[in-house]
Structures
1.
Amino acid sequence: MRVALAQINPTVGDIEGNSRLIREAIRKAGDSETELVIFPELTVIGYPPKDLLLKPAVIRACEQAVRDLAKECRGIAAVIGHPCPSDNSQGRMLYNAATLCHDGRPQHRRVKSLLPTYDVFDEHRYFEPGPDVQITPFNDLQLGISICEDLWNDRDVVVRQLYHDNPISELARHGADLFINCSASPFTLDKHALRIRLMREAAKRHGLPVLYCNQVGGNDELVFDGCSCVVGPGGELIAQAKGFEEDLLVVDVPVAGRGGKGLAAGSGKQNAKPKAARVETLSEGIASAYHALVLGLRDYCGKCGFKSIVLGLSGGIDSAVCCAIAVAALGRENVRGVTMPSRFSSDGSVNDAERLAHNLEITFDTVAIEPAHQAFESMLGSIFAGTDPGVAEENIQARARGVLLMAISNKFGSMLVTTGNKSELAVGYCTLYGDMAGGLAVLSDVPKTMVYDLANWINDDPASPLRKKFGKPVIPSDTITKPPSAELREDQTDQDSLPPYEVLDEIIERFVEQEQSAQQIVTETGFDAEMVLKMIRLIDLNEYKRKQAAPGLKITGRAFGFGRRMPIAQRYDYRRSMPKTD
């Protein structure tokens, strides 16, 4: 059977715009003599729609959109994801559904069975699980349609199964000829390999092909990488769409009982020429992180209506990587960098910022903050009299810079990008209303050590788009090699207050992403117990800062943001988990 996977980039809530994308994909698939075109999960409204789902008018508009789109399905069928009212008088009011449309109308609706409530997912807030698992008749086939999480309960792949049922096995038991999974699976590092393993296990266990169509694009904190694919009945990868961009993947899927022709009897398309399978090479590791950040920033700006970006350039590694990503996302002509030296800024840092701007060919301004710094010190002089200078005086500089950057943002309508990384955000090594000011925190889920990896990849890897574009490394070498510093006092370095970033990042990964105890971290790493306890305490104490931070792009398994719900006012003592010593 010739099938198209329509890997589109929907905008949450833009039902009209999303319907236009769906309509265009149906027509393109028809031009390729496709029998069936598959769309991602909730594609009519975009994922995740959050509390838009609580508005009855939104649900009615989605239902009407499906009816209108079904009219396009003549000579071709489509599986379209959308929300709809549930059939029950009790329980939650909505289903997460996928409807098979053909012959000009909606024909069969299938409902998601497994509703995730972990990490960034909160589907039990809105949806009722499907009452049963059913196969879907289509021409001479029985389609096994599932939705995203329904695929994620394989006993041989998932470490701990979260659900008692396995919809994929149920579909096979009911006589499915192939599996279809409509998905909105967010990107995290190395996640696609796990998806492929899930599909291969399902295909081999039941001897049926798996067709997986994933959303692509950025919606708020989440980035969707696409990478839609088809796995054959023996577990072989037949076709794979592009990563991090829209794509229409057309493939002839081997289906039992069709003699390998891949076309339905009576479809009128028996004479279609065989189509060569397409397997795109996907970005992996640090390259995939780069592409996810670029896509996330580009879509956040585009979907929020921003055409340009402004950011502070300190001469440090974080602002340099953010600036490079901004240029890749919006183009050099739409990026403005501003360096704002204080009395503590080194000439090297100012020069590095200027070199970066020159290399990336962006607009560059220098605005010294010394007059503002002195003015604030003078205004606060009588109040601060008799006290020693400290963090309060240091943070005046960061907040003065925030005022300047927000003024430029307001004047020119540019979005201010914050440049702090995950390591700093974890332990509060950042200033509220200062360097935390802005509309999007690009690196808030990127540990400091990974920031260096990104910088080196951007500069040196032959696959780096910026290396190709400018023909040289764009981030100054001194920016990468010099000790990191906030430069808010004389001779300051980050390691005056923090352990080496290699150590800190491992503590953060174990404590935040793996939920390890202080004792387990100390036992498995050999790190100093008091240092580990101090860093863990800093992570907890700075929850109040993170609640006020700009939204950030998620690329790891556990980001700070709406997927990690920790209390601000809490006093759990991690020393209680440590063994007592005499």
Note: DSSP finds 18 helices and 19 strands in the chain.
2.
Amino acid sequence: MTLSRLSIVTAIAVMALMGSGRAETAGWTDVPQGWSDAQRVAWWTASQGSRLIPQAWLDALEQPDSTAMFLDPAYIASFRYLPNPTSGWTSPDRNCPYDPAIPLGFTVDCQSDANLSNSKLRWKAKQGENEPWVGMNCSACHTAELTYKSTRLRVDGAPTLADFQSFMEALNKALGQIADPRDPGKFNRFANRVLGLSASAEDTGLLITALAQLNKWNSDLAKLNNPGGLRYGFGRLDAIGNIFNKVALIANPADVAHQNANPSDAPVSYPFLWNVPQLNKVEWNGSAPNIDLNDIRAGAMVRNTGEVVGVFADIAIRNKPGFAQGYTSSIDLPNLVKMETQLTSLQPPAWPAVLPAIDKGLADTGSGLFKSQCASCHSVPSSRANLAEKYTVTLQPVMAGPDPANTDMWMACNAILDWANTGLFKGNATQFVNQTTFGATSNSFTLTGNAALGALLDRKLDLASAAFQGLFGFSQGLPLPSKKIFQAGLSPKQVRAAACKAYKEDDPANPKMVYKGRPLQGIWATAPYLHNGSVANLRELLLPPAQRKTAFALGTREFDPVDVGFSTDPAAPGNTFQFRTKDANGVAIDGNSNAGHDYNNAGLKEADIRALIEYMKTL
């Protein structure tokens, strides 16, 4: 297909979405948020340079323990990834045909792999260096769909319900079974689809070798991430843990057996993205500053680059590259810049007209309650349309410790304590422009920041060194707390809990473990709640923690406009996962505590709760 024909197909696809003047595609209705339909299509499909699996392999892949195809829509829907509405879409940046069979937010990347590392696979003779790979972009994790009766509502920038953990386990298992000699039929079917029925012995051998390489990489990463028996379920992911371990694998790709594994056991709710460019700090623990320098959103670029590293970017670490060289990577910086720029125009979603009308009188009563009890942590923006307004987030100290009655601390704790052997990073300047170099080990936060900056510098992004300084102040060089924590008989998890509690006791005036409070515009579309998604709806959030449900059904898209959240009715379609704060023996599950956010909740009467909920619908 020629470039001109591709452009025509792209234009037709976008025009089809725009035909009625509003996006109402594939049976859903979009909640207006200030984006054109062309912008929304670009948001769903633009490659960030993520490379998870060759496109030809994914198209040929069968489900684990089955001959049914992996990309079967019903199977993909079981992980709650959304179907992609576009067809004929082509990335204008890479002249790369888009595959409508892959889910929304899964993208195709066709860049040259000449200077890449783990994704530079060769599975057929005379294979070119621009073989398409499937990866992910922001929209895979930050696009929501809610249903109310017969209406489907699509909200951009809202948290997905996807179960990333189960999806990756299924993908790895499916790839692993292809290479299992006990089932040659599965490999033969896969090879016939990838190589054709008349493939040579040479091509078959190349495919076997390439498959083994990808399986090893995925297996090594899964071992580092292993959260034990913790299940994330729908709508949660330990993104920080996954990013940290990806960097740890990049640092020691040939010696993962001797790399420190940081269990990805602190899943959090996917944050909503509107207002993000307006905040001074992002991430649940406020660890990423939004630094602007000469109209360049330096903080956002480093943050987004780190995100792409975590979701399957290919990056090769050079030894002592210097400020002018950096690290070779697959990251698509131009598209990152476009997506971040587009995000600045994303408006918070207003309560849709299809939902029951807001009670204005009750909302007015709730407004007064919110201003007196909530606004000190959650700023009230002047208007939904004012996207230039800036907000300083409130950083609330985590009540650290193993006591399950406290706010779940594990995301904030792991961000401080995770560390890795530096491997290929050893000897490199930690901030590229400073004299401090990496020794044999480093905290994971600094390694990740270094990897992100190195990838940006390789693309010759014009960032002054001053912009880097704030990106490493969060956890670089944190000393061990003075309190003795390595006591006999403690499990690794208990040691980490004691360490985090000790950090708080060492410096109570400057706590290292915090969670942020931010404006709550569009909060109605972002269930489940709390940083770890442990509270089903807004009503539960306003109850005293002891009165909140310790278990609820999760997975349906059916919206509850009264309590505001997804329906917890076990009979609701899709409610196949049981979220629990305690195990079968009544023991609190680390990472799942729903005990946070108690600010005199017991002082709220039911009428107060209803008024607050009604007001929050208006935000």
Note: The longest helix spans residues 201-225.
